[in-house]
Amino acid sequence: MSLSAIMGVMAEKTLHDRFYNARNDSSLVVIEGFHPLKHAIRFGAELLEVVSPNLDELTALQSEYAPDITSKFKNLVTAIPEDVFKKLAPVRPPTGVMAIARRPVIDLAALLADPAPVPVVLLENPRNLFNVGAAVRAAAAAGAAGVVNTGNLDPWKPAALTSGVGLQFAMPVARLETLPKCDRPLVAVDLGGDTLPDFQIPDRALLAFGTERQGLSQELLDAADHRVSIPMENGVSSLNLATSVAIVLYHWKLSQ
Ligand SMILES: C[S@@+](CC[C@H](N)C(=O)[O-])C[C@H]1O[C@@H](n2cnc3c(N)ncnc32)[C@H](O)[C@@H]1O
Fold it and tell me: Residues with Cβ < 8 Å from 176, sequence gap 6 or more?
């Protein structure tokens, strides 16, 4: 093997190691695909490395979908061979780009104490990263103050970043060990209680949504100041978790 071939193999191995290690490093996040990267850039992510096998295709995508980030995008991306690129993720992102970014440090106490009359979303022990990401996307679109979740899912994992299209970078998003203690009015969004059209969401609400299979815990229901349900047609058991988050947040947003 020639010296340049050996150096190529070594460069590929260190690149692969950096992406592999970033997936297991709680101070970093791996971004898979253009749309999460676009939002990461818009919302000021600190990008450590961006790689793509096809700079022309990527530039065309960026010009079409995010012309506002042209100056930040220039010279950001390193071209790498396709066979190296596709080994950096379990599934090759179809938009042909991946990145490593620093995970923002979240001041949870400041988020919960924020006096602005804006809700925070609490997901109690969600089980599906795609739901977590979709809830983050709805929360960012509606202008929620942040999204927190209990349980063991990390809302910054690549699958949640993909379904959240990187909007984790738009507001505080964090996993908590236990249910948060704070002075925000706790609203349990659940199948019982007041119906949403008749309910005014209080200022600074902590809007709690339950786990996909069992719903909210008794502990949370007992602690809640309010309980509200989204009306459904007869025979429908429940809505999807992220859909419920979107409906409740837009009920709040459209009443502002
Ligand atoms: C898939 S549902 C859980 C269904 C669960 N079997 C139950 O009995 O609550 C996940 C979460 O979405 C929210 N949700 C779904 N449909 C809802 C509805 N019609 N009204 C209020 N919340 C709802 C709740 O927060 C619920 O805990």
Answer: 108, 148, 149, 150
